[in-house]
Amino acid sequence: MVARIAPQGAALQEAMGVAARRLSLSGTPFRSDTRAIPFVRYQGDEAIPDFEYRYGDALRDGGVVRPAYFPAVGGVMEWSASDGVVGAASFDDALSTELANQRLRTALSLDGDWLAGVLSDAVYRLRELRNMAAEPAARVAQA
Prior knowledge:
Oligomer: single chain
Structural class: alpha+beta
Order of helices and strands: HEEHEEHH
Distance between the termini: 26 Å
Radius of gyration: 21 Å
Shape: flat
Largest sheet: 2 strands, antiparallel
Strand order of the largest sheet: 1-2
Helix content: 25-40%
């Protein structure tokens, strides 16, 4: 791991570096810019946790998390690349990284119909589940 730390990470290390104990919680123990996370040990490029509590552990413990349901959703995405080439593919199609990224951006675009249809279907299914039991819930987050 490259020993670079983002400016806010350096400030955190300065402020908390002398603390006897620190608790850091993360659902994503990595950075897309490959900078080191303060107070995280690395072996090569891999973060080494002091303790792991995974989703499966929380399910087995009961009452910590709800089971998640991720239905497989199909469909064909169509897009025009910046070079003018028109592409089309489903998520079942094997693509190069560049084309797979274009397909994903197309699927997640708020300008298209695919994501709206997926969310509409999810709302319908959630309402069906709630008719059987009051427990099911859903959350959609946008970063």
